């Protein structure tokens, strides 16, 4: 199938699934779409035992989408920019300390807690060939909460503005930090395996300085790039003064696309750049003069983009089961079930320890730790990062499959179980 046929098929499926969810399931949009896509995947796999050609055809079509490429290099920048547009800047600045700590310290804590714990889990189940660096890679890709999933959830439930900004701000920034941590650990793994690639560090000597330099380049470079593009974009929109709404929309699209490409060329974090760019262009929490620089049609356009891409993303997550179904053996599913408990426990400690320390100086809403733990949904970014390992010769195929299946188990559990019950938790 050509690219046009693939896009046509995906948009048609999104429209049909959305109609089914609205009229029959009546679940939150992203969760309902993933439920339908998962049901379709399982149905195809079941029918595939009787009609093998059906299963092969479905796998071929899904293989052409290349989930990790579509999400990480195409959709993610648009989704993060759209999400950041709706963030209240004043509220974010008020909660900057908790957001910064949760996005960095909590992500790092969770990465290492998951990594070291899963090493013992893998060995206990019988996978002695799994090394610590493999488990740390899993910890890095599964620790950041998915802003796409979390923001969709936060908009639907009624919580205090301060807690809302903590959840939304953390999820937006820890996504970028999480990707950087993953890339840093990946470069160490590639150096250990003697594999070339990855920001010029693969296959070379890895030192504490080179690790710190790579991390700093990605994080601070991404933030700086986002600030530069955001300032220039804001000035351009202010100059246009809402006289040409089509030009404003084109300016924002070009900022995202060019900014993402420049970030890739400079080897800095595109996700962090997109978040900062969105905060510059957004109008929430600004005075009237600054807020009026960006016209309302820009926000309407990006809201539609956000909703459409969200629908497509969660459908792709559900349909990805068709491609990775071979990874779900009984042993792998056991590890996946244990992995769910490990990731939730690490999330609880990862947010709990920093918050308990910050409570010495700051006041937090009641049950903040429990809400952040259960509301920390994982999504497509974790799946995409796990799938990216399949292209690298840094571990055996068996280890790649068990990491992919465990990641998918955690993601599906977090979206379906945590996503459907967080509302009731908040009510209590």
Task: Please give the structural blueprint.
Layout: H1 3-25, H2 29-48, H3 52-65, H4 67-85, H5 89-94, H6 96-125, H7 132-142, H8 147-154, H9 161-193, H10 208-240, H11 245-266, H12 270-281, H13 288-291, H14 296-319, H15 321-324, H16 330-358, H17 368-374, H18 380-388, H19 397-427
Short descriptors:
globular, Na+/H+ antiporter like fold, 428 residues, 19 helices, mainly alpha
Describe the structure concisely for a colleague.
With 428 residues, this protein is mainly α. 79% of the residues lie in helices and 0% in strands. It has one domain (71-427): Na+/H+ antiporter like fold, CATH 1.20.1530.20.
Explain how this protein is built.
This protein has 428 residues and is mostly helical. The protein has one domain (71-427): Na+/H+ antiporter like fold (Up-down Bundle), CATH 1.20.1530. Helix content is 79%, strand content 0%. It has 19 helices and no strands. α4 packs parallel to α12 and α7 (132-142) packs antiparallel against α9 (161-193). The N and C termini lie far apart (50 Å). 48% of the residues are buried.
């Amino acid at each position: 199938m050509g690219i046009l046929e693939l896009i046509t098929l995906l948009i048609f499926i999104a429209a049909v699934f959305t109609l089914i969810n609205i009229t029959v399931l009546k679940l939150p949009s992203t969760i309902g779409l993933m439920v339908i896509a998962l049901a379709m995947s399982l149905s195809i796999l079941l029918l595939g035992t009787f009609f093998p050609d059906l299963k092969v055809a479905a796998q071929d079509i899904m293989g052409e989408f290349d989930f990790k490429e579509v999400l990480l290099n195409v959709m993610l920048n648009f989704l993060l920019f759209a999400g950041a547009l709706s963030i209240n800047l004043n509220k974010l600045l008020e909660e900057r300390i908790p957001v910064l700590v949760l996005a960095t310290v909590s992500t790092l804590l969770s990465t290492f807690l998951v990594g070291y714990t899963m090493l013992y889990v893998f060995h206990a189940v019988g996978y002695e060939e799994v090394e610590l660096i493999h488990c740390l890679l899993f910890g890095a890709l599964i620790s950041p909460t998915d802003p796409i999933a979390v923001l969709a959830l936060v908009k639907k439930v009624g919580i205090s503005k301060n807690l809302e900004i903590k959840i939304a701000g953390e999820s937006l920034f820890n996504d970028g930090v999480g990707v950087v941590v993953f890339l840093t650990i990946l470069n160490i793994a590639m150096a250990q395996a003697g594999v070339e690639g990855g920001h010029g560090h693969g296959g070379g000597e890895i030192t504490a300085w080179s690790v710190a330099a790579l991390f700093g380049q990605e994080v601070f470079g991404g933030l700086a790039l986002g600030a530069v593009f955001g300032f220039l974009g804001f000035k351009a929109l202010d100059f246009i003064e809402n006289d040409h709404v089509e030009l404003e929309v084109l300016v924002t699209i070009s900022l995202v696309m060019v900014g993402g490409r420049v970030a890739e060329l400079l080897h800095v974090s595109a996700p962090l750049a997109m978040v900062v760019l969105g905060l510059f262009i957004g109008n929430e929490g600004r005075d009237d003069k600054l807020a009026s620089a960006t016209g309302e049609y820009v926000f309407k356009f990006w809201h539609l983009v956000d909703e459409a891409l969200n629908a497509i993303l969660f459908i792709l997550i559900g349909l990805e089961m068709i491609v990775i179904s071979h990874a779900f053996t009984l042993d792998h599913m056991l590890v996946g079930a244990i992995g769910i408990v490990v990731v939730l426990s690490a999330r609880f400690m990862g947010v709990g320890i920093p918050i308990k320390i910050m409570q010495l100086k700051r006041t937090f809403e009641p049950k903040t730790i429990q809400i952040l733990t259960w509301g920390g949904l994982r999504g497509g970014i974790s799946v995409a990062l796990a799938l990216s390992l399949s292209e690298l010769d840094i571990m055996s195929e068996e280890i790649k499959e068990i990491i992919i299946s465990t990641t998918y188990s955690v993601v599906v559990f977090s979206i379906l179980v945590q996503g459907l019950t967080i509302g009731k938790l908040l009510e209590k």
